[in-house]
Amino acid sequence: MRQAQQRQARRQELIDCHDCGNGVSFSAVTCPHCGSTEPAGPVVQSRRELRRLRIEAANDRRLVVVTTLCAGLGTLYGAVMGAGGLASGWTALFYGFVGAVIGVPAAFVINISRSLFD
Ligand SMILES: [Zn+2]
Fold first, then answer.
1. Is 78 helix (H, G, I), strand (E, B) or coil?
2. Taking ligand 1, which is a single-atom ion, which protein residues have CB atoms under 5 Å away?
3. Which is deepest, 37, 43, 48, 110, by most CB within 10 Å?
4. Could you report the per-residue pLDDT of 26-36, keeping only the tens digit for each?
5. How far apart are CA 21 and CA 18, in angstroms?
């Protein structure tokens, strides 16, 4: 009986209500059986989960910082190397863009290597 319930749950994308154990639609905001407002359970369930969320938040911040840094350096480089005037502005814009394009995968690599050695 229990197994049959679980099979059905998978097929209809139901989850077991955290509070009463009845099947609840994954997207349901409240449980139709017991009225629980968190049928999927607390968002943060364990210290391990908390740690993972903290690492992800740090990774997001690093992504923004590294990308901004690369874009800024690119813009600076373009402004210095540019011919001056309007052309210099376009060169700065171009190198800023190149910097951002390089910065995203660079931050991504940093994030992966950090999560491996953490
Ligand atoms: Zn319930």
1. helix
2. 17, 19-20, 31, 33-34, 36
3. 110
4. 788 888 999 88
5. 6
Distance CA 103, CA 13 (A): 38
Q: Please state the domain extents for the chain.
A: 1-44, 47-117
24 pairs with which residues across the strands?
A: 15
Mean pLDDT of 89-100: 88
> Distance (Å, rounded) from C-alpha 71 to C-alpha 98?
7
> Judging by DSSP bridges, how do beta strands 23-25 and 14-16 pair with one another?
antiparallel
Structure tokens at 33: 């059986």
pLDDT digit string, tens, across residues 20-73? 989 888 788 888 999 888 877 766 567 787 888 888 888 889 889 999 999 999
Residue 24 Cα to ligand 1 midpoint, Å, equals 7
CA 37 to centroid of ligand 1, rounded, Å: 9
Look up the pTM and report it: 0.50
